[in-house]
Amino acid sequence: MRMSRTIETGLAGASSLHANTKKRQKQQAVLRRCGLLALVCALCFLTAHLVMLLTRHLPFEDVRLRTDLGGMVIAALLPCLVLAGFAGLRYRWGLMLCLGACAAAALTTALPL
Amino acid sequence: MRETLRVRLGWLHSWVGFLAGLLLVLVFASGTLAVFDTEITQWMQPEVPLTQTTLLSPTALQAAAETIQTEEEQGVSAFLSLPSHRDPILRVLHYDGHEFIGAALNSTTGAAFPTRDTAGGQFFYNFHFSLRGGTQPGAQIVTFLGLCLLVALGSGIIIHLKALWPDLVLFRPFGPRPRAWVDAHLIAGVLFLPFILFMGYTGTAIHARLLIPAQSFFPSHNTALPKKEKAPPKGHVLQTGPLLPPLAPLLAQARATLHSPDGNLVLFTPDEVRIFKSDAFGPFLTRDHVDFSRKDGRLLRSVTHSPPAAATMQLVRGLHYARYAPLSLRWLYFLSGLAATALAASGFVVFLMKRRRSSGEQMFFRLAEGLTITTLISFPIAILGFFWANRCLPVALHDRMACEITLFFAAWALCAAHALTLSLTRHATSGWQQQLGLLAGAGCALPLLDYLSGTHPWSHGGGVFITTDALGFTTGLIALWALLKLREPTA
């Protein structure tokens, strides 16, 4: 029976195991990042949608002007929220910020002005 | 590996930058060309002499009015673009679903020039904001890409915040290859950051309402939408209006009110004639206008003041569209657009270089490299193919404009198929080299083709032709230089 040196010494086997563990950890980290990014993006788009709905209450007759102003707010707000939501790791403050922004927008839309 | 802020944002920057960048680079390149859309149209319609003045005769206006009336009878909603210093031609235009196209008239006699049918520079303008996919989903995709650009820019700034000043001045083109490409990426990103950030923000803000409309996704929302009146499709009319009144006196009155001596737009509805202020007047895209009755030509109203909120949006639009910009500023926009394209291109190269050793054999890497060739080399080849088609297709060809556009997409599709095939079969280097060779040939031969076509005199108004040909030639030279660098044994 042919025995490889790998099995004989056991050193490369350990190294391969270590590499596999490292690879698995890396894959898990990437999956976690993708999940967080998807969640943050969903929250941010919901917030942006609610902000756009709020523009209907702006005191301008021109509907297009209202949505244009909403667009200006969204173009500034959405990337900042995505970045904060993704970057804020400690105590998940970024995600909390996104949730807070979304809740604030939802409350403002739901409550009568 | 420790999950630091730089590591997380580096990952976000790489992947959002690469995936969105594959399409964003097309938006940057076409936007850069769209800065000179009028000049490209002039190059593509060499039959129109550019030596005319901006003066308009009543005869020419009457001829334009008759053309408008004829087009309305055919169900087409046409408008007038009056001569300006940038484009001294009287044009009767209509929207065909993608571009504003139409006849070019002599501003003195009103006779139509026998121009070739072409989309001209309008093609690049349309491609820039919608990838030629219409409002839905084209403009929506571009707006989403704009948001991705802002996220990538934000993460890039945070990653390089500490080294922002050294990045501004540090460029080592003769250093190790990855270092040189990172330096190029950083220097383009940092030097042109204000421009790229501003254009990304304004472009996204302008069309954000298309991506996220102000209508509830939830049916139970209490606000009912008002019923829409039956409107014709864009560029069409449902009913023809009465015969137009003489336009010359209306134009004189409107110009005096608007303080806009040339380059106005004149729109027609079944009841009204609307004369708009020229976009070239200032950075505010005001759309100030004077309206007259279509029946008898009497003044109905003039709109010359905008509230501050509207003025803000007008400034955002005006600065993004740059229609106000004089030639020097237009060149600055053009160079900044090129820098944005170079930023994305160098980012792609860095992305691939970083992963070549670890993942070079994987199918996804090869696909990524094939797609990179498709955007970085095949797209410019298709653009030059569009210019070649303009000179090579017969002037009287039926549906010539559609043929030009089809040739553009056919050239791009063929090059993409070539790049992907070679890349997936582990011959990506050949793909880069062959396509760079084709780009070099198409670019360097453009001036010769233009000269041999003999479509226009070089003595009068030749500046547009010389500049366009020179830019094509420069593109060819850059591609040739890149090809020679790739062939060096150390490469």
UniProtKB/TrEMBL annotation, chain B:
Transmembrane segments: 12-36, 139-159, 180-201, 331-352, 364-389, 405-424, 436-452, 464-484
InterPro entries: PepSY-ass_TM
Record keywords: Membrane, Transmembrane, Transmembrane helix
Pfam families membership: PepSY_TM
Top-level division of the source organism's lineage: Bacteria
Protein name per the record: Membrane protein
